[in-house]
Amino acid sequence: MTSEAMLLWSLLFNSIGLGYFVYGRKQGSKVVLYSGVALMLYPYLFSSVWAVIGVGLVLVCVPRFFNW
Description:
This is Amino acid transporter. By secondary structure, this protein is mostly helical. It contains three helices and no strands. It starts with a helix and ends with a helix.
């Protein structure tokens, strides 16, 4: 995949992360808050599109399975 795909996937997961961050801050849910921060920052660490997609899907699912 090309850099355009990387840009679009990063934008998608950054947008979801911003939503998680705002929701977690308002509700006081640390799991959702930290997942949002991780979703906004992790695309800068990977250069592979498949890694961005895989890690992003895992981070999106974390608040669903870990409700502390």
